[in-house]
Design goal:
This protein has about 575 residues and is mainly beta. The chain has 2 helices and 53 strands. Strands 1, 3, 4, 47, 50, 51 and 53 form a 7-stranded antiparallel sheet that branches. Strands 15-14-16-22-18-19 form a 6-stranded mixed sheet, with no helix packed on it. Strands 2-46-52-48-49 form a 5-stranded antiparallel sheet, with no helix packed on it.
Length: about 575
């Protein structure tokens, strides 16, 4: 008697509606694939916090030696206590969806209108590094240009080498706003007057002689701060040298990529010189990701690459440049600010689905390889309806899972196992990996995939799995389905429905339900049904785990059939 057995489930494949490999499922929901390739009903979704306003960002990590879970709502940054799920306001960061990143012991928040940081004590607006625009200056103002102006601040510094006798010092600019401070030999001094129109400072007593011993900090209004603060997205990158912050997403400069500069030789995310930008093509930048020492830049239908290149100016000084080159003239990325990396390969969503950008043997060449064929039906519907607004990509590294979210469903690619599966009843705007657990938010609520529960806030999770219609190894013969057996492991009470469908009967007409009680420990069960299906050509197996508290891990399914003869000439 022929036996069709599956003891290694290999996940979702929406194109596999008719096929001989019953290990794939054209339609499954809320079952995940385990490390041993079994089917296991997903864990429950737990509500962590309801806020009064929409959640604009989540972040988890260390600031100094302290670990934080932080979120932004209605322009306020909150600390969330995950022990009792209480929140504490930290400070005002401004409204809008935000990106958060840690740098040098501070958490920076950029949201398209304001640039702030949290140092573990309080929230402050980034005022910006004050550049040293000239060094080695004589009192008459002549000297060596050193750093460029910073778009984030109207302040700038100039260093003079005092001759011990001059009392009047000429600044690099006329019509300044004010002098912020003056130091002589590192000590703040007073007793001077300023001629703002002429751009001069006169001391009552000449400073003592020294090399770069007089520093004058002054202000001249800079109206271009919004070129930086109005950006929505950010990423840290430096190639083989010092780190820089790259930002984009300014609606007034949609195809501009801005980057920070070293602040007196030290990496900084608070120093953006006026000329530190690159115009990328003629369309909006959708995302930027790094791959080794290269940066990949995407628009909707094109891709570029960049890297750090040391160049020399006319004075012989070396500086870092980030030139941009064409990479692909046909493929790009359709989701804003949501690209990620898996196994050091950038992932984007293109017109044909999800693509891996893989390095080739040719320097700087990347192949964009589509790997989302198992969810091709979903991808086709997204492309057909042009519904990119709620698409999200997130790499949940702790679970080796790439999450492709769309319309309350999370299609998950487990890149360690190479399989797809799907979770339903998920509403996601932002994701966060906190110490190996997945948190996400939607509207005003923060949720968690809770491994200790099999319920969604007390409501049972319904998980189902369907095989393709398959011929049980006998494609040209009619068969009777005599027995379906399912081997599973349960921990808590379990409700499981089993059914066998065919090309001759309606869906789930031969269905039986099983109840396995909670016996306080893991239990292995073998369930059997005897479907009354005669002289069918193809069969489909249907499994459903439902009910509050249900916990099921399915290891094997077997279908026994009995040959009844050849198919009719004009029949299946």
């Amino acid at each position: 008697m022929p036996v069709s057995a599956v003891n290694k489930f290999v996940g979702l494949d929406q194109a596999n509606v008719l096929g001989e490999n019953a290990a794939y499922s054209p339609d499954m929901m809320n079952f995940k694939i385990t490390e041993n390739y079994s089917l296991k009903k997903r864990c429950g979704i737990k509500t962590i916090l309801h806020d009064a306003y929409e959640i604009d960002g989540l972040w988890s990590g260390y600031i100094g030696t302290n670990h934080y879970f932080l979120y932004v709502s209605f322009g306020i940054l909150y600390k969330l206590n995950l022990t009792d799920n209480t929140n504490t306001p930290v400070g005002d960061v401004g409204s809008g969806k935000c990106v958060m990143f840690e740098f040098s012991g501070r958490l920076y928040i950029l949201n398209g209108s304001r640039y702030s940081y949290f140092d573990g004590v309080a929230v402050n607006t980034v005022s910006g590094y004050v550049p040293i625009i000239a060094i080695g200056c004589l009192p008459d103002g002549s000297g060596t240009s050193f750093e460029n102006l910073n778009l984030l601040t109207p302040k700038r510094r100039q260093r003079f080498s005092s001759d011990g006798t001059s009392t009047t010092y000429k600044l690099a600019e006329n019509n300044i706003d004010s002098v912020s401070y003056i130091t002589v030999d590192g000590i703040v001094v007073s007793g001077y007057t300023c001629n703002s129109t002429a751009g001069t400072v006169t001391f009552g007593t000449a400073p003592g002689a020294g090399l770069d011993n007089v520093e004058i900090c002054y202000t001249k209004q800079n109206p271009n701060r919004t070129r930086i603060t109005n950006n929505r997205y950010a990423m840290l990158f430096g190639g083989n040298v010092d780190g820089r912050l790259f930002i984009w997403g300014n609606p007034d400069f949609p195809n501009y990529r801005f980057h920070s500069e070293l602040a007196n030789g030290v990496p900084s995310v608070e120093y953006f010189p006026e000329n530190n930008f690159t115009v990328i093509g003629n369309t909006e930048i959708t995302d930027i990701v790094s791959q080794y020492d290269r940066q990949l830049i995407f628009t909707k239908n094109r891709a570029f690459y960049s890297y750090c290149e040391l160049r020399q100016d006319t004075l012989g000084r070396y500086y870092s440049s980030f030139p941009v080159y064409n990479l692909n003239g046909e493929k790009g990325n359709l989701i804003k600010g949501s690209c990620c990396m898996i196994n050091n390969e950038p992932i984007t969503f293109c017109g044909d689905g999800l693509n891996r950008w893989s390095s080739t043997a040719v320097q700087d060449e990347r192949n964009a390889v589509c790997f989302s064929m198992p969810v091709t039906r979903t991808v086709s519907e997204i492309i057909k309806t042009n519904s990119f607004g709620d698409l999200r990509l997130y790499d949940f590294q702790s679970g080796s899972e790439l999450i492709f979210y769309h319309n309350t469903k999370a299609y998950i690619y487990n890149y360690r196992l190479g399989v797809w599966y799907a979770y339903g009843n998920m509403l996601c705007d932002c994701f966060c990996d906190c110490r190996g657990e997945l948190y996400f938010s939607y509207s005003d609520t923060i949720y968690k995939l809770d491994e200790t529960s099999s319920d969604d806030d007390g409501y049972g999770v319904i998980a189902y799995w369907k095989s393709p219609f398959f011929s049980a190894g006998q494609p040209f013969l009619r068969k009777d389905a005599t027995e379906l057996s399912v081997t599973l492991r349960t921990v808590s009470e379990t409700l499981l429905d089993l059914a066998v469908n065919s090309d001759l009967v309606s869906e789930n007409i031969f269905e039986e339900s099983f109840y396995i009680p909670n016996e306080g420990s893991a239990k292995i069960s073998c369930l059997r049904i005897r479907p009354n299906i005669r002289r069918a050509s193809k069969f489909q197996i249907y499994l459903r785990a439902a009910g509050s508290g249900t916990d099921a891990e399915i290891h094997e399914i077997c279908l026994l059939t009995k040959t009844k003869g050849k198919n009719g000439r004009y029949e299946l």
